[in-house]
Amino acid sequence: MKYLLFLFLSINLFSSTLHLATSTNPSRLNPILATDSSSSEITGFLFNGLVKYDKDSSTIIGDLAKEFYYEDDKTLIFKLRENIKWHDGEKFSAKDVVFTYNVLVSPKISSPYSASFRFVQSVEAVDELTIKVKYKEPYFKALETWMMGILPEHKLKDEENLMSASFNTDPVGTGPYKLFQLEHSKNIILSAFDDYFEGRAKIDKISFHVIADPMTRFLMLKSSALDVGSIEPMQYERQLDEDFFNKFNIHENISRSYTYLGFNLRLDKFKNPKVREAISLAIDRQEIVEILFFNHAKVCTGPFLPATQAFNKDIKAPIQNIEKAKELLAEAGYDENNPFTFEIVTSNSSAIRPYAAQIMQHQLKKAGVIVNLRVMEWQAFLNMVVFPHEFDTVLLGWGLSPTPDPYMFWHSDNDKQGGFNLVGYKNDKIDRMIEESQSMIDREKLSKIWKEMFKIITEDNPYLFLYIPNSIATVNKNIKNVEPTVSGIWHNYIKWEKE
Description:
The chain is globular and about 70 Å long. 29% of the residues lie in helices and 23% in strands. The chain has 16 helices and 20 strands.
């Protein structure tokens, strides 16, 4: 409690400061290298793309670009806003966009986001405020790829190794906030950028408190040391009193993310599809949702989210069948004398996932499967387990765009260092379908092929698709002008005010 009191006193140095928490230190505050949730969240305040989604995530609108249009089905024109400045006062221009593209496609960096630019033939600065992007062929996500944060050429043109550049901890962007202070494992403070092109943010500073322990984050929220935070369903249902609801507004929506158990398909033990199917049939997904979420979640049935054109409503989650699971394991050569054994690795950055792992451990035991658990600190989990592919299985989650890009997660090309095909999934038919779909502009045809991919991937069991949690956001009532939408609360944060 003394620690909490110290934090509360130390973070109230500024009268207009929005207090948030992040579970881990950001690895790189660079939009093209930000692959962890903390880095991605913070860089979102520091950088802009050429375009962005509107408040409902249904329409693409201009960001750094004031206007954009297709000259033909393979040529995209962006007209940039005038008088945009970088945080150091330098003027933003078309050359920064060209530079960012050249960095993204350079062999000197390892970024999963580079894959989104694979169809680009050229990016040309027509003049100081006009960009012409030519594509090798029509690409269904051409506009969405330019939501990528743009980098400053003048800061990075002479940088030999961007992967380890000081820029990654001392970034310069065009966003509404700029980096004010970076103290690892303590505070990351952003300050409002006076010359932001949409107008200065009303709240002077944003303070991210690096709090690895979920319970500490919850206690800070309850004590009003945090202004905005997420709460877990059990906390919402059992651990909050009337006083909390008098101080905080609650905004709940189904999230655009899912949690999965991913098999390392490079290992011989998981190459047998009967083993993966047996493990799937031994899991009761609905029980996980009921125990951990109190109906503030739904069972995930596949790789694309509900309410998108890629969702296949005909695919249902497997129903637990312990006897069938045992039969499949026996056919694969496993029994009581030779039980199938594997490890689930996850991170303590989530309050829920370690408990989900324990429930699955208990469920699988009924089928004779022995599961060992390992819970790690987030950065160690990423750097020692996830990215080097040193795991049996990982319990992880993905946040997805309203328009899915199967290439990033399911094409065999992305089974590589820095790629998002973490489990090493390879299916020649899926590869061909993804390649065919990339140049489809017709949304009905795209929807049909996505739904077929959904079916094939789900039947292959590269993951066990587990649950889609609701997002339960709490906002202190002293924060004004919050306008929640189906996509969340953050679309207009520069207009928020703190009383």
